[in-house]
Amino acid sequence: MTDKNGKVGFVSLGCPKALVDSERILTQLRTDGYDVVPSYHDADVVVVNTCGFIDSAKQESLDAIGEAMKENGRVIVTGCMGVEEEAIREVHPNVLSVTGPQQYEQVVGAVHEVIPPSREHDPFLDLVPPQGIKLTPRHYAYLKISEGCNHSCSFCIIPSMRGKLVSRPVGDVLDEAERLVKAGTQELLVVSQDTSAYGVDMKYRTGFWQGRPVKTKMYDLCNALGDLGAWVRLHYVYPYPNVDDIIPLMAEGKVLPYLDMPLQHASPSVLKAMKRPGQQEKTIERIRAWRNICPDITLRSTFIVGFPGETENDFEYLLDWLDEAQLDRVGCFEYSPVDGASANKLADHVPDEVKKERWERFMAKQQEISAKRLQQKIGSVREVLIDSVEPGVAIGRTAADAPEIDGIITLDDDYGLQPGHRLNVRITDADEYDLWGEPAEMDSE
Known about the structure:
5-stranded parallel beta sheet, 20 strands, alpha/beta, 5-stranded mixed beta barrel
């Protein structure tokens, strides 16, 4: 054993769910006495948490592994692409170990083999923050409530990488959320592969938190999270009927009036080819009902254009659907094949130039919708969470904007603010994606 702390470099790729995995690994390494360092040259070993969702993400992962091998030479690979160990070792045969997603103990064990933990470290005396090691700013954090997915969408290989749905015990989730809020977190971003399905694998078993019974169910979890005093933002919510129960919580202010729904398309024939879950043909009706209950609700989604078999009529159907749905925030991707996905076997793959042209038309349509909806906010007063402050300017987000994927609001002075501050702001201007504003005086209610 060494008589000093080992030093670990860490590269985290992929989605927020993978980021939570990275935070869990780093927390355990820190608990075991290792120092986490920001450069390859200072590290005794480098851990690369990979993404394997689409081919471009796999290439990014291979490139990151290659850079770590070149700059350091001692590399441990984990994450979603880790399920393809042969593909990784074909390109980088000298990596020290390869593990798949959620295999925290194996990753930490691999680090122990390369750099045995220090004799001098005492996890009961050495400082590890109670909320664990976080890779996000202190004022917001991702809260992962489950692993895996029970769906078998034809374009996706997540179930083969992360397995079937496994919900975390509701008491564990709420304990983690409470620790985060006590440590200064102002916003909890709830993530999973399928947030609406939380607890279905446990048959919605009743758990306990602080002596009170809480069902392992989306509604009960959201209701309890809403008592902690932080913003609660819901991601990856399929529009199942049980989501209707959450909208009154939004109207009451318990959780943010924001839903991130991965709809992917609107054409019934394309959705059938995608093997998408839920009664998506009723989504427009459901959106209307939600807006009646909570008029201020913000709806975000992502879509895929150029899916195999998508016709011009299918695409026009999608554009008409966008006009009707009037979603606030939308992302769009050109279809990209993924090794192992059943969609690869579908007929009538769309030419790349057609995919690109449809993507451009889609984004032009949504930009027009977004700009119009943001213009309607000018003059209103919104609560804003400040993300960053520079001399003469403060940048934050309203409840309608998730970090990194949505828009921002810019204040033309720093007003003595700090990241994590929440204040009321009057909207003074808007473009297609972002807002501008100034502090407003409002009643505390």
